[in-house]
Description:
There is one protein chain. The chain has helices at about 30-40, 70-75, 95-115, 135-150, 170-180, 200-210, 230-240, 255-260, 270-275, 300-305, 325-330; strands at about 20, 40-45, 55-60, 80, 120-125, 155-160, 165, 180-185, 195, 195-200, 220, 230, 245-250, 315-320. The chain has eleven helices and 14 strands. The longest helix has 21 residues, at about 95-115. It starts with 17 loop residues before the first strand and ends with a helix. Helix 1 (about 30-40) links the parallel strand 1 (about 20) and strand 2 (about 40-45). The strands form four sheets. It has a seven-stranded parallel β-sheet with strand order 3-2-1-4-5-6-11, with helices on both faces. Strands 8-13-14 form a three-stranded parallel β-sheet, covered by helices on one side. Strands 7-10 form a two-stranded parallel sheet. It is α/β, with parallel strands linked by helices. The chain has a domain at about 20-165 and about 195-220: Rossmann fold (3-Layer(aba) Sandwich).
Amino acid sequence: MARHDSFTATGRNLADMEILVAGGTGFIGSVLCPELAERGHDVTALSRTPEGLPESVEPAVGDVTVYNTVVSAVDDTDVVVNLVALSPLFEPRGGNQQHDEIHRGGTENLVRAAQTAGVDRFVQMSALGADPDGTTHYIRAKGRAEAIVTDSELEWVIFRPSVVFGDGGEFVSFTKKLAPPYLTPLPGGGKTRFQPIHVEDLVPMLADAIETDTHVEETYEIGGPEKLALAEVARLAHRADGRSSTVVSVPMALAGVGLSIAGAIPGFPMGKDQYRSLQFDNTTASNDITAFGVSETELETLPGYLGVSGAPWDSLSIADPSLLDPLFEFFPPL
């Protein structure tokens, strides 16, 4: 059994807990683990290669897709936090089936180990739009993982953030790769909206959900203070580098041209799942940051992080899409 007999229903903080952060060496985990340690908890970061950790965080070697490798790390733990994830921004090296293997299968193994060990609470990092019947492999796998968590006997909390940015994150670099500077072709003119949240704003909310009872059996949709179109994100990212960005609006029906050439360009950031994901916004209907006593005015903005001033996306320079007609003749849409 875990060290504490149970969490109480009083909403009080519980200090000095044993916390396992699966994916603790990743982008979010590398910020969360030190935060939890500073709050007085004993923190272990589970990873296939747990390197570069601060002295306050213990390493544990394990692969969430292999049940036997996570059992010992989960033993004697009060809380398990599952941050293990593949990026939705790129197609996995092993193919899109990797989303199910890691997001659903990995969650299943961690939940099974947690229930066996008598863990008190399970905090799951999911994603906005998570749906077992969703339009992308990533969204479907995230939705199926959520079902495993909510059907368990554990106390659980689920987070569904929009895109997360910050030092070590990939959202800005991905946008610059997808939308090059100067002449910038974007599906639908880059109107897909995101609600970026800074990692250092998200992490204290995760820590609060670990420590207090008021968040049990809640699913939180979390976003930053601004809803920005992809075209605006591209403009901000390039402005931070001292470059301009003139968007060429590529009709969504023709945007599949990127898929025709992706296989021939190593690292090209556009697979079928990524194309599908650009057909719907990644924003919250009602930002649940208020459940943590936070207002949007307190959060870091993407322009502020990049050190540039922002403007509405529709102030961008939009070029004539016929500029791309010669390309379409060679690479017909899928």
